[in-house]
Structures are given as structure tokens and as C-alpha cells.
Description:
Elements: E1 11-13, H1 16-26, E2 34-35, E3 38-39, H2 41-52, H3 57-69, E4 75-79, H4 81-87, H5 91-101, E5 106-108, E6 118-120, E7 137-140, E8 152-159, E9 168-172, H6 173-178, H7 182-188, H8 239-254, E10 257-259, E11 265-270, E12 274-278, E13 295-302
Parallel strand pairs: 1-4
Antiparallel strand pairs: 2-3, 4-11, 5-13, 6-13, 7-12, 8-11, 8-13, 9-10, 9-12
Helix pairs in contact: 1-4, 1-5, 7-8
Amino acid sequence: MSTNGTGNNRFIDLPSRLEDALIKTAKTLPEWEMAGTFLAPSAIAQYRAELASVPQFGETVESLRAKLRTVDTGYTVVRLGNIAQELGFGEAFLRLATAILAEVAIPFQPFLRWPLWKEIGTNLAASPGMSTGIGYNAFHMDLVNATMPPDYSVLLCVRPDPLGAGASILSDARAATARLTPSSRALLADVVYRYGSFFELSDVGEEYRPFPVLDGEPDARGFIRFTAKMLTGEIDLTADHIRAAKDLADQLIAGQLSFILQRGDFLIVNQHKWLHGREPLASGQHDVAPEERRLLLQLFMRDASAV
Ligand SMILES: O=C(O)CCC(=O)C(=O)O
Ligand SMILES: [Fe+2]
């Protein structure tokens, strides 16, 4: 295993022998079964057994787990571009990606109306700041208004923006919070914030409305329950609560990292620690054929210890 040499070790490139073995194994992986909205324990066991014999796979998974579980790291990008080059993004590739992820936590499907891997395409008619829009997708956690948001959010890049923009942005929400004044932190602990709708969801607890941004829970369990999207449009908050939330939004930007996901990269974010978003896509999307525009697949995971 090696890193991409950009000064951090959050990008996981697989050795080519491991890639070759995974390509072979992917072609034999069976279809996965679900148990309710979770990947079935039998499917997890079956995938684990198939991957157990792949040389070097165990070390890669160990390193992946270590990067994601500790609260000071908490995100990673696994680079499966060479594997996608061989397999495309059909069933074999998705089974392999699901099998790798199942070693970290349990893939599940909180949105009852979407499949386990949910498409995030590029929709020129969507509101620019929303997930399928072409604008700036501000710092947020997914399912922010649920009492039990997914522990991990995964974004697999099928096609980057062919015009070269749409970088992913990430920020360490606990570090950002630590830079706030005590008075801003106190305001963010008030149960007054609201965002979004809540319907056709499963296994993410109840609707949380209003919610506190800071829940006072230990880092591994609690969330920085924040979305900068709640600061646009009509806001039903006191000026002080708005200011505290804007201070946090500013600190998230001050500490942000960004990189463009390449074809076959998947980004795994531990939502207890990191918030994510996306820079705007390049202008000129109207001139790009719809089937060539940026396309991601999203998947959510629950820590096995929480089930
Ligand atoms: O487009 C992206 O890179 C991020 C999308 C996202 O965060 C979301 O849909 O929740
Ligand atoms: Fe998101």
C-alpha cells in the first residue's frame, strides 16, 4: 500500500498485484442480499470469505479501518480507477466496492425510495446548491435532521466533471468548532436549528427538529450536526444563533481541504468528525452531453457496534 504523496496519507492506492486479484475476485462475487435496509449478515460473511484469500487485502482493510475510525483522521479516498478501467461500473465493480466497504461498516439504505448505491448525477435544472446541482454545495453532513444520521457517507466517482471542476471539499468540524468563541459554542448547543424534510427514511432514528449543532456527546458518538445550507433563504433563528452558525461556516471554510475525485475513487467520510461539500462544476455544462456529465454514486454505512 502507498500514499499519493500530497502530504497526507488519506489516499489509498492499491498495489497492482492486489488490483489484479481483486478484478478476478470481483467477477465471481455473488449478488448481495439485503436484510431490511441493511446489507444482510450472510452477504457480509460471504463477501468476507471471498476476499479473505486475496493476498495483501487484509493489510489494506486494516489501514482503511484505522484511518476512518480514529477521530483525528476520519476520511479516506480509496483509488479503484485501475479496477474500474477493467470492470467498468457494472455489477462486478459495485459488488467489489460493497464488499470492501462492508469490512469497514455496514452498508445500508436509509432512503427507501433509492437503491443501496444512489446516483448523484448533474441536473442543470436542479437548485445549484443541492446535491445534483451545478453550483457550490456548502459544508454539510448527510441526514443532518435525523437523530441517528449514518456514521459514514461514501461517494464513488463514476465520472468527474469533464470540464475539470467540482472538487470535493472536506473540513474537520471538531477542529473548526474548537476555534470558535465560547459564546458561539454555547449558542450552537441550543436546540433551535432546523433543516430539510424527513420522509421515506429508515434506520436513521426520528426526525430531529429543532436540533442542536453541538450535542455534547463524546466525539465517537456525537455529531457536529451542521449544514451551511440552513443559512440561506428564510431563516427562523435569532440574530445571535445565525451569527454563531455563520462563524462555524467560516471556520469550516478556513480549515477546508479540497481535491477532485477521479474516476473510480471513493471517498469515505466519518460523519462524526468531518463535514463535506462540493465546489461548483465548471461553467459550460450546457455544452456537455448529459451522459458525459459528472456522476457519483452515494452509499451510507452504519457502524457495526451501533446495530
Ligand atoms: O457532489 C458532491 O460531490 C457531493 C454531493 C453530496 O454531498 C450530497 O449529495 O450529499
Ligand atoms: Fe452530502
